[in-house]
Specification:
Blueprint (H helix, E strand, L loop, with lengths): L1 H12 L27 H14 L3 E8 L5 E7 L2 H5 L1 H12 L10 E7 L7 H15 L4 H5 E6 L4 H6 L20 H12 L4 E8 L4 E2 L13 H22 L3 E2 L12 H9 L2 E8 L4 H21 L1 H21 L25 E4 L5 H12 L6 E3 L3 E8 L6 E5 L4 E4 L5 H8 L18 H4 L4 E4 L8 E3 L10 E2 L4 H12 L5 E2 L6 E2 L7 H6 L13 E2 L5 E4 L12 H13 L4 E4 L1 H5 L2 H4 L4 E4 L4 E2 L3 H12 L3 E5 H10 L6 E3 L9 E7 L12 E6 L4 E3 L4 E5 L8 E2 L12 E8 L2 E6 L10 H12 L18 E2 L10
Parallel strand pairs: 3-4, 3-5, 5-8, 6-7, 20-21, 20-22, 22-24, 24-32
Antiparallel strand pairs: 1-2, 2-4, 6-8, 9-13, 9-14, 10-13, 10-15, 11-12, 11-14, 16-18, 17-18, 17-19, 23-33, 25-28, 26-27, 26-29, 26-30, 29-31, 31-32
Helix pairs in contact: 1-11, 5-11, 9-11, 9-12, 16-23
């Protein structure tokens, strides 16, 4: 079997009519041969460094570091002639992507990326073997046509621990559009530097077969048609031929979609115009077989792109000009189904969309974050030079379009740019799923996730109104707004430094003590300063936060995704020091002895809490503590500790995909201080929460006002119910979220509600007599991360 693979791969790598001329000396260039076990992290970095120093065909480097500090190595492989002018080749590709030049006539850039899930190691070893062969081969004809970028380890922390998730507990193949993790940011920066015509993301799945594209439904309507044609007409047939010739079982056209922009294949196709592909090998096969088949697929991809380089590059160049033309006309791509005879479920509306906009003076710091996220991948972002009356403006979450005056400084992203497809995919309110099936979430609109005040501009803007997207960072002042997550981050940093902050109820401004210079802190978080000091501010206490330990995913016994997201939010985004406390710690009175102001219980599964722990939590809340819990586990713990009168029920459809739902907010409550009256929550088959006391901070509207930004079915039981509750308990409070407010780090709009809960002052009521507690049998989450291989 191994000999047969070697013969097929040799044929795949040998260029047609290969010349006998060598491609630089191969003397001293080290070889890599896969072993019976995956290569270790140090061995991978050492090999890339060694081959980069020894070969005239390889440039190696480090794109960045993981959350635990491990390197993200890469290698660029091409002919010595191409590497000598690599800067020019990459600049031509970037210019084409920006609509200012052509990549045709030069080599095509192809990416091979492996190990985004740390427990799927075979693609890494296959890439190192292929890199070795390209560096040590006898011909440069194929390398004259290609620049190959290898990123063999996208998740070094996960590979070191043999876990799917990153060191922060995130699935990095869900993070592409949001780039919340350092591994994703480093990878995207390198992709922008070397934009690909084709990109393969190498994985392992269940079973023993091999998957390669074409994909199945749904496919996002803004995925460029040139990329789909490259997959279906050029690369896919080459893969079928090679695998058939080798006698390797494979499947194609099923199981994987190009819909969600959190995936490597969908994101690279839409953002870079690449033929973005997922390669999957069944994990049940022996390691050597997995490596050999990933090697075969990768080598075949290179061969196919090299053979059709000229046509693929011409189509790639045209795709950017076509996107620009569509954007100028305000035209969205229609959606279709890939399977014949399947009707389109939700059609893209025929209304014109010329731009997206969001207020620069509302949730200002978060708006800056979105602008930076878009700019980092090549999207042009502007601001209005002056106030502009827009004839047809569709506000997020509100039906129809009407005239609206947008103030000076409003952020504007026009579709009249080569990144039109990505702009629509990321800023559009609805992805318009062609079929009612989803592998993962069904919505990811960034403005909705961030709770921004904005919408779609459906009429042409006057000429001359767009200026550069200048950001005024920080500044001196006596106060700063409290309506953004960036504002909460700044406030928590200042409180941690001992600054005696106060806050204005309802409007939420943070007030600095006289003489305090917070310029540097505000600038670091992109928060504007306010010169005027609002009246009526109340003193804040610096939060000291505990996180409940032992929450696990019932599917695998590992730490629950929700608890990992919560810890990331608290520590890395809000900058807090978080202590993880278990049942014994709570029962022993650690909340009181440690001076904690807040206890967070995320979602997951855990053993039944002890009566002593529940009683201690109840007494602590009644004495002034804040309990913040979400979804099944958080709600159940509060009920078990008798610190809420709320009830909950199972969702109507536990298979409902994740989607942004509109909520009505009550800014009079401290958990919503600084918020607008309307916001969005990201819901994913959550419990249905009913309030019996306290304040409904966020409520899903009933009737026609109910809004879903994306595909949502079975939402009847949610209408009119509570999304967030703030219930006074003695001198403390219980804050319950029906949904996960820290979902994958995407949701700045509800993460800032968590920050508000931690900052909320005690209720001031005298501690009441403790109620008896009932020990729940267990805490079980109804939702866990589905492992898309």
């Amino acid at each position: 079997m191994r000999a047969a693979f070697a013969a097929v791969v040799a044929l795949a790598l040998a260029p047609a009519g290969a010349s006998a001329a060598t491609c630089g000396s191969t003397a001293g260039v080290p070889a890599f041969a896969p072993g019976a076990q995956p290569a270790g992290d140090e061995a991978i970095s050492a090999y890339l460094d060694a081959v980069g120093r020894a070969s005239t065909r390889v440039i190696s480097g480090v794109a960045g570091t993981s959350v635990e500090g491990r390197p993200l190595p890469y290698a660029v492989v091409s002919s010595p002639h191409n590497l000598a002018r690599l800067g020019t080749i990459a600049a031509r590709a970037r210019a084409s992507r920006q609509g200012r030049g052509r990549a045709a006539g030069g080599p095509a850039i192809v990416w091979l990326a492996a190990g985004v899930h740390g427990n799927e190691p075979s693609g890494t070893d296959a890439d190192l073997q292929l890199l070795s062969e390209l560096a040590r081969g006898t011909s440069c004809e194929m390398l004259d046509r290609l620049v190959v970028v290898f990123m063999p380890v996208q998740n070094p922390d996960g590979r070191a621990a043999n876990t799917r998730m990153s060191g922060a507990g995130f699935d990095l193949n869900r993070d592409w559009f949001a780039r919340t993790q350092p591994e994703t940011a480093a990878k995207l920066d390198l992709l922008v530097r070397y934009p690909p015509v084709a990109f393969a993301d190498q994985h392992e799945e269940g079973g023993a077969s091999f998957f390669f594209p074409p994909d199945t439904d749904p496919v996002h309507h803004e995925v460029p048609s040139a990329a789909l044609r490259a997959i279906s007409a050029t690369i896919g047939p080459a893969l079928r031929e090679a695998f058939t010739r080798a006698g390797v079982p494979f499947v194609t056209g099923t199981g994987y979609d190009l819909f969600f922009m959190g995936y490597g294949d969908s994101a690279t196709t839409t953002l870079f115009g690449a033929a973005g592909m997922t390669f999957e090998k069944g994990a049940d096969a022996p390691f050597g077989e997995k490596v050999a088949q990933h090697h075969l697929a990768a080598a075949t991809l290179l061969r196919a792109v090299a053979a059709h380089r000229a046509a693929l590059l011409r189509a790639w160049d045209r795709s950017w000009r076509q996107a620009l033309d569509e954007g100028r006309r305000g035209t969205l791509e229609p959606n279709t189904t890939q399977a014949r005879g399947i009707p389109v479920d939700v059609r893209v509306p025929r209304t014109h969309t010329y731009a997206y906009a969001w207020r620069g003076d509302v949730a200002a710091a978060d708006g800056v974050r979105l602008a930076g996220r878009l700019r980092s991948v090549g999207v042009r972002v502007n601001r209005l030079r002056r106030a502009v009356s827009v004839r047809a403006f569709h506000a997020y979450g509100i039906p129809g379009a009407r005239r609206r005056t947008l103030p000076a400084g409003t952020w504007v992203v026009t579709l009249a740019q080569t990144q039109k497809h990505w702009v629509e995919a990321i800023l559009g309110e609805d992805p318009y799923a062609a079929v009612p099936y989803f592998y993962d979430v069904a919505s990811w609109s960034n403005p909705l996730l961030m709770g921004l005040d904005g919408g779609a501009i459906r009429s042409r803007l006057p000429s001359g109104v767009l200026g550069p997207g200048v950001v005024a960072r920080g500044g001196a002042g006596s106060a700063f707004p409290g309506d953004a997550e960036g504002s909460a981050e700044a406030a928590l940093e200042l409180l941690g430094r001992g600054v005696a902050l106060a806050r204005v109820p309802r409007t939420g401004e943070f007030v600095l003590p006289a003489g305090t210079d917070a310029t540097a802190v505000l600038a670091a978080h992109s928060v504007p300063a306010l010169a005027a000091v609002p009246a009526g501010a109340v003193a804040l206490r610096a939060p000291k936060v505990a996180l409940l330990a032992a929450l696990t995913d019932p599917a695998n016994g590992l730490p629950s995704a929700s608890s990992q997201w919560a810890r990331w939010l608290l520590e890395r985004r809000l900058g807090l020091t978080v202590d993880v406390l278990g049942d014994a710690d709570l029962a022993a009175g650690r909340l009181v002895d440690g001076g904690y102001t807040a206890l967070v219980v995320a979602d997951g599964s855990a053993p039944a809490p002890s009566a002593a722990a529940l009683a201690a939590v109840q007494a602590w809340v009644r004495a002034g503590g804040t309990f913040a819990g979400w979804r099944g586990a958080g709600i159940a713990y509060a009920q078990g500790a008798a610190i809420t009168t709320a009830t909950s029920a199972a969702p109507e459809d536990p298979q409902a995909p994740g989607v942004s739902l509109g909520v009505q907010l009550d800014p009079a409550d401290p958990v919503a201080w600084g918020e607008r009256g309307q916001g969005f929550a990201f819901a994913a088959a959550d419990p249905v929460l009913h309030a019996a006391g306290g304040t409904v901070v966020a409520r899903y509207p009933a009737g026609a006002a109910f809004f879903a930004g994306g595909y949502a079915a079975g939402t009847g039981r949610l209408r009119g119910t509570a999304a967030v509750i703030d219930e006074p308990i003695g001198a403390g409070r219980t804050v319950l979220f029906a949904f996960d407010p820290a979902f994958r780090g995407y949701t700045e709009g509800t993460e800032r509600l968590v920050a508000n809960a931690l900052l909320a002052p005690p209720t001031g009521a005298a501690p009441a007599r403790a109620r008896p507690v009932r020990v729940a049998r267990s805490i079980v989450a109804p939702f866990s991360e589905e492992p898309r291989p």
